[in-house]
Amino acid sequence: MEIEVLRIGQRVVRDDRVTTHVALVARSFGAKKIYMNEINPDIINTISKINKTWGGPFEIKTITDWKKIIRDRKKESVKIVHLTMYGQNINDIESKIRNEEKILIIVGAGKVPKDVFVMADYNIAVGNQPHSEVSALGVLLDRIQQGKQFELKFEDSERVIIPQEQGKNVRMNKTTD
Q: What is the CATH class of 2-172?
């Protein structure tokens, strides 16, 4: 399955950390790309440094028109999955999403415009109570990939964590300039 994420909106400064974490979860759970508008350049720099240090082909694309991204991706047979506490329960729909070839997951900040609900192929709720969009993205990505995202190998990394029961073990693959 090919996964991309669209982060719509950002309450400037207030959401910098949350938006960074949305990108980090998307990256580490196997998404190939995140589209963002209204983004602090520091977030792009942070994610670029993470990619350099820890590897992987994750791409950040700055956009101005999120509706165009949705329309364009739909034309390419990408299914649009909107995370919202008002949607269908994830337990009832996860297997259907799992069978899609390509998905674009929409993660909103603040109040999401009605157009998103209408344009989405799936409006998915990870619980019907207020919660973190970061946790909702993580739960959705885990459910639809059934834990396989933890088997990903991130190519061209400067560092690799060697899992162990206690302590920290990091292997250096290459030196930094």
A: alpha beta
